[in-house]
Amino acid sequence: MKIARNFSLFIGALILFGLMSAIFTVNQTQQALVLQFGEPKRTIQEPGLAFKLPFIQDVLYYEKRVLSLIPQDAEEVILADQKRVVIDAYARYRIMDPLLFFQTVRNEQGATARLESIIDSSVRRVLGGETLGSILTGEREDINSSIRDEVESSVTSLGIEIIDVRLRRADYPETTSQNIFNRMKSERVREAKEFRATGEEEAQKIRADAEKTRTVILAEAAKTAQELRGSGDSLAITIYADSFGRDKEFFSFYRSMEAYSKSLADSPTSMVLSPNSSFFRYFKDQDGGQ
């Protein structure tokens, strides 16, 4: 009796477990594929509760939302004008047919590998007919659209819908960038040398003009000074002559005072003269001894 009871409990638990394993939930952001021994049986794309055969059927979930694909490495592409650029592109896609998706790429990892190859080929094919100027201008949107259309036509058989494909970055390769930098540096150094040479030439002209002007000014000043000095000397001689002619004694007194001023000033020169010398006659008497 006890054995039968235990067996009934076991059977009941087994049935309950089977019922629980037969029910599964599909979220709003998911879509499901029911597999039986690895073979797809049906697709569920509406959210809610769903049923499957317990123990013999499994459920594989796929994203219903938009997925992003960002390649790990940028690719070097040769353009129509033979310029090399490093292109970094990304894509957004959605799984539209889980059954076809499972049959072709199995999972998102497989889709990523296939999409990277397809996008790389499409980018090279489209950009092979474009120039660097078109990539860097307003034509870039048209290029993105062309790449998206080409990728879309290639992934339809994978159960995927391409939402967008865009070029994130378009740069010169490192070696090309370095060569451009070196050329720009050389050009700037050449321009700097030209500016310095031009500036030095202008500076020499300015210095030469200034020196010429200085020489002319000094010559004119020396000429004017000589003329003034000559006029002064002439006037002084005239005054001396006139004074001598009017009062010989005053002239003699004035000349003696000048001689005293010059000879008795601070000077290392020594003079030995007799006290009775005529040189000192105005020392004794303002009338010169008269």
Q: Could you characterize what this model shows?
A:
With 290 residues, this protein is an alpha+beta fold. It is 56% helix and 20% strand.
In short:
This protein has about 290 residues and is an alpha+beta fold. The chain is built from eight helices and nine strands. The strands form three sheets. Strands 6, 7, 8 and 9 form a four-stranded antiparallel beta sheet that branches. Strands 3-2-5 form a three-stranded antiparallel beta sheet, with helices on one face. Strands 1-4 form a two-stranded antiparallel ribbon.
Q: What secondary-structure arrangement, pairings included, does this model have?
A:
Elements: H1 2-22, E1 23-26, E2 30-36, E3 39-44, E4 48-51, E5 57-63, E6 67-69, E7 75-78, E8 84-95, H2 98-104, H3 108-127, H4 132-136, H5 140-155, E9 160-171, H6 174-246, H7 248-263, H8 281-284
Antiparallel strand pairs: 1-4, 2-3, 2-5, 6-8, 7-8, 8-9
